[in-house]
Amino acid sequence: MNLIGKIFVLVIVLMSLLFMTLAMAVYSTHKNWKTAYNQLDAKYKQLDSEYKQANSAAQLTEAQLRGQLDASQSDVGRLQSERQSLIARNEDIQTEINNLKQESRDATAAVASTQANAERLSGENSVLRDNVIAANEAADESFKKTQEATGKLHDAKLELANNIESVSELTAEVARMRVLMTREGLNPDMPLDNTVPRVGGFVSSIRRRAGDEMIEITIGSDDGIRPEHTVEIFRMTNDPNQSKYLGRAQVLSTDGDRAYARILPNLKKGRIEEGDRVATRLN
């Protein structure tokens, strides 16, 4: 077989395959039109029956709805009438409520006025009660003071009697002392401020500054010490022969049980220490 023969054989094979493919495609798309018509006719009849049933149901439903609409319109009319009645009733009730509110306001005002009067009366009652209590307390206090005054008067009478007796005794004592002072050569009428009492004490502290020596002593105004008085300073030992006179100090100021004095340099005889003795007189 030559080349041309081979080409024709190949073309025939290819064409066979092509026609076979076309035949299969036509077969796959082939439809039985009679069977399809019968199916569509059955479906049409079914839909027509359903339409008739639905139309009949719709007519029945429309009649029912018309009846319900009439009944609803009748109900609406009845409800509208009831609404008007309720509105009128509501207005009457509102009027009654307003009247009750006014009555409530009036009652509240009356209650407030009554409460104010009650509080005022309560306050007046409290004031009266306090006044009564205060009057009773004042009466009790007056009675107590009267009793105390009576007791004090009695005590004063006793004290007066005792004082009169004491004055008599003191007068006699003063007369006796005047006699003794006159006998000792003292003037009984000399002012007490000029009299230096015979008292003694100790040096409690010493302060030295700029050549001056200040001492604090344990006798003061309660003992009759006054500024400008002088005190003698000395040191006592167990052996009287060893006692030593140290000097003199002038009182500058005093307290009840203390006095402050300055050492007189021209009369100083030795070093003064805390614990040394002081006295207004040595004999």
UniProtKB/TrEMBL annotation:
Keyword field: Coiled coil
Coiled-coil portions: 30-117
Superkingdom, natural source: Bacteria
Name of the molecule in the record: Chromosome partition protein Smc
Species per Swiss-Prot/TrEMBL record: Aeoliella mucimassa
